[in-house]
Design brief:
single chain; 195 residues; alpha+beta; eight-stranded mixed sheet; EC 3.6.1.64; U8 snoRNA-decapping enzyme; RNA-binding
Length: 195
């Protein structure tokens, strides 16, 4: 991932008081739906449109009053997504990776939380009532996990959007790691981005 270095969680937690921690979460759920009667959806994966017009994952900075990374993340999810997130909690077991940027002393921690489809739909429905809706968060979007017959529509077109930081790379990595897309599909999408 460009201009970042991957760290183990223990390394990241030992960086010292000059470093700030920021946590993000990919929320996903199995989805048995079928688009146009022929395209299986398989999973619903949420991202958000941020205040700066870029796509990213919900989350934000961990504050001094937060007793853990996960407490900070769950607080930010509540602020950005609303009361429906009270039905679940992102835990240390949901942790995926940490990356330190080359700029300011910030380390980003990435989590992936599997929900039920009902929980995910409740988050989508309640998000417009969240404290930060219309401010930090302009709306939620589902990632299309399919490619249309033209080879461009669906996920390839979605990946042409503007993403914050390494969110695009994290999305592709997690889709592969969690088995939400086949490895060869993810590899071809990664390669097409570097052309």
């Amino acid at each position: 991932m460009a201009n970042t270095s991957r760290l183990e969680l223990a390394e990241a937690l030992e960086l010292g008081p000059g470093w700030r921690h920021i946590c993000y979460a990919l929320l996903y759920a199995p989805d048995p739906g079928v688009l146009f009667g022929r395209i299986p959806l398989r999973y619903a994966v949420l991202m958000q449109m941020r205040f700066d017009g870029r796509l990213g994952f919900p989350g934000g900075f961990v504050d001094a009053q937060d007793s853990s990374l996960e407490d900070g993340l769950n607080r930010k999810l509540l602020e950005q997504l609303g009361e429906a997130v009270s039905a679940f909690r992102v835990e240390r077991a949901d942790y995926r990776s940490s990356h330190a940027g080359s700029g300011p002393c910030v380390v980003a921690h990435f989590y992936a939380k599997r929900l039920t489809l009902e929980q995910l739909v409740a988050v989508e429905a309640g998000a417009p009532c969240a404290k930060d809706h219309g401010l930090e968060v302009l709306g939620l979007v589902r990632v299309p996990l399919y490619t249309l017959r033209d080879g461009m529509g669906g996920l390839p077109a979605f990946l042409e959007n503007s993403f914050i930081g390494v969110a695009r790379e994290q999305l592709l990595e997690i889709l592969q790691d969690l088995g939400l897309l086949e490895s060869d599909c993810v590899s071809s999408l990664k390669n097409s981005a570097h052309r």
